[in-house]
Task: structure prediction
Amino acid sequence: MKTTVGCLQPAYIPWIPFFKRFLTCDYFVLLDDVDYSKHKFQNRTYIKFNNLKNLLTVPVHYKMKVPINQIQIDNSKNWRKKHYQTIFQAYSKSDFFSDFQLDFEKIYLKEWDSLFLLNLEILNFFKNFFNIKKELYISSKLNVIGTGNEKLVNICKYFDAKYFVVKKNTEDYHPKEYFNNNGIDFKYHENSSIEYNQAGDNFISDLSILDYAANNGKKLIF
Result:
């Protein structure tokens, strides 16, 4: 069987395309041992609040060339209370938020030091909410050597995969020839937006999976 591997950096309350890629892969790996990138979605997400796109950011102690799984949250700021209050105000009247509100709130009642462990907890929460049976793999636990594309190729080899999932037009940093020379071909994935049932006067695309769950419940349409 020709298996498919997808790899992404863990994100804070990921957006829908993150889950779409997860669902298309035979093996899906969270890249927790690659360098943290500032101003990316590893510590940020968008929700809909008062008919506007609202950014939530987890404050972190940033250092260059530090793996994601070593990034510490800056708890001198009361971000947990602020985030949950904003989420509650945004979605308390949505059709399905009450289905998971109390369990989701428990995440914000816990103290978090590790950004990665927070992101993993939230990802597993929605994985369970949507009854997704696929396993999540953590790159640091695979003991795969290499950096950059070498690491990705070796992850594919670890799972004996023939396909690696990439976005179109990314050959500038994922050289197709290098993957092909290692017996791996590309399977292309589009981070396309979908329209779904969403409360409010206007539809806003590219929000977190939280927005989808609060408005549509457990049924996935992507």
About this structure: Helices lie at 16-24, 79-91, 101-109, 115-129, 139-142, 148-158, 176-181, 209-216. The first helix runs from residue 16 to 24. Strands lie at 4-8, 27-30, 44-49, 52-57, 60-61, 72-73, 136-138, 163-167, 185-189. The chain has a mean pLDDT of 95.
